TrEMBL record:
PANTHER family found in the cross-reference section: L-THREONINE 3-DEHYDROGENASE (PTHR43401)
Pfam families: ADH_N, ADH_zinc_N
Similarity section: Belongs to the zinc-containing alcohol dehydrogenase family.
InterPro entries per the UniProt record, alphabetical: ADH-like_C (IPR013149), ADH-like_N (IPR013154), ADH_Zn_CS (IPR002328), GroES-like_sf (IPR011032), NAD(P)-bd_dom_sf (IPR036291), Zn_alcohol_dh (IPR050129)
Keyword field: Metal-binding, Oxidoreductase, Zinc
Span of domain Alcohol dehydrogenase-like N-terminal: 31-141
Cofactor(s) it depends on: Zn(2+)
Protein name stated in the entry: Zinc-binding dehydrogenase
Record organism: Absicoccus intestinalis
SUPFAM superfamilies noted in UniProt: GroES-like (SSF50129), NAD(P)-binding Rossmann-fold domains (SSF51735)
Length: 350
């Protein structure tokens, strides 16, 4: 590219139910920054729930968009290991100095800055034609990947973080409660670890998608999921249960699905307002149960996620519901609210 752009066009939420397309100057590249021409950025729950007014504590104007990927078109003076033309996924930008960052747990950075210098909340600027990132927050991908699929690196990293904490092993039975995008991403990951995966869901459309992807599916409005798990496992129960919905009733069912001893339970999703998890402490003690939480991926998890997608070992194509250009962001948000799976913002080649 001979002439580099000077302004970036991006989408931000200015109030509940309303987004705007704005322009700002592209920030000057620091030594370890690169300029990225975005290829795709998917609308996460964090984004569309702000559109719905459910997470207004996040503040306005919000220029989010963190599930993205793009191609490097310019490099800062000291960037060596990333090349012009590399397809990269966006990761988390931490301070690089705190204990969490030094352990690679960037989502737990204690001086995490979620606001840009010009006052945009969640200022990741993924819903933008161009964006500037420091290379320590980027992960290389196979350039031939579909951009909307490559944009699953961040959510997959989050899922792999939970998978490692759950210690999923081959031939185990893993139940995923909820067949939304994150539920099915958990199901895909558990299957790639060699587990038998059973998905519990009540919405017909999501049940159909989960079946299409080859999972054993329990229709939880038609049958008792706890009973069904007991039948499938010859009365033993599941080795591990992943709660990909945030709901007290679902938690209760999940705990009851576990095998009698050494069952593991992963709280994957957050709810707003937050649900209660009610378990007798003696059960945790006598049954030697493990209750695990996960929130974000570490740098290692991002590396693994970019590998899994690049090698085609995890196929997320069914989890993309529709693609929209940036200009139709308002419609795209509404589609994300109304839809079941990821809405992807895609950028034309210029
Ligand atoms: Zn996300
Ligand atoms: Zn930090």
């Amino acid at each position: 590219m001979s002439q580099l752009p000077e302004t970036m066009t991006f989408s931000c939420l200015v109030k509940k139910g309303q987004c705007e397309i704005r322009k700002r100057p592209i920030p000057a590249l620091k030594d370890y920054d690169v300029l990225i021409k975005m290829k795709a950025c998917n609308i996460c729950t964090v984004d569309y729930q702000q559109f719905m007014g459910l997470r207004e504590q996040q503040g306005y104007p919000m220029a989010g968009g963190h599930e993205g990927c793009g191609v490097i078109i310019a490099r800062g003076a000291k960037v060596n290991d990333f090349q012009i033309g590399d397809l990269v996924a966006l990761g988390y930008q931490g301070c690089g100095h705190c204990l969490e960052c030094r352990h690679g747990n960037v989502s737990g950075c204690t001086s995490f800055r979620s606001e840009s210098e010009d006052g945009y909340k969640f200022g990741e600027f993924g819903f933008a034609d161009y964006t500037v990132k420091s290379v320590d927050s980027l992960y290389k991908l196979n350039s031939s990947l579909d951009p909307s699929e490559a944009a699953f690196t961040e959510p997959l990293a989050t899922v792999l973080n939970g998978m490692k904490k759950l210690h999923v092993r081959p031939f185990e039975t893993v139940v995923v409660i909820g067949a939304g995008p994150m539920g099915l991403l958990n199901a895909l990951a558990a299957r790639s670890y060699g587990a038998r995966v059973i998905v519990s869901e009540l919405l017909d459309e999501k049940i159909a998608t989960a079946r299409k992807m080859g999972f054993i599916v329990i229709d939880s409005k038609a049958e008792d999921p706890v009973q069904r798990i007991k039948e499938i496992t010859n009365g033993e129960g599941a080795d591990a249960v992943i709660a990909a919905v945030a709901n007290t009733k679902a938690y209760e069912q999940g705990i009851q699905m576990l095998k009698e001893r050494h069952g593991r339970f992963l709280v994957f999703a957050a709810g707003h307002p937050g649900p209660e998890l009610n378990i007798p402490a003696n059960d945790i003690h006598y049954k030697e149960m493990e209750i695990v939480g996960t929130y974000g991926g570490t740098n290692d998890d991002f590396e693994d996620a970019s590998k899994a997608l690049s090698m085609g070992m995890i196929d997320v194509s069914e989890l993309i519901e529709a693609r929209y250009p940036l200009q139709d962001m308002q419609k795209a948000y509404q589609a994300a609210v109304d839809g079941n799976y990821r809405i992807s913002i895609v950028f034309d080649d210029q």
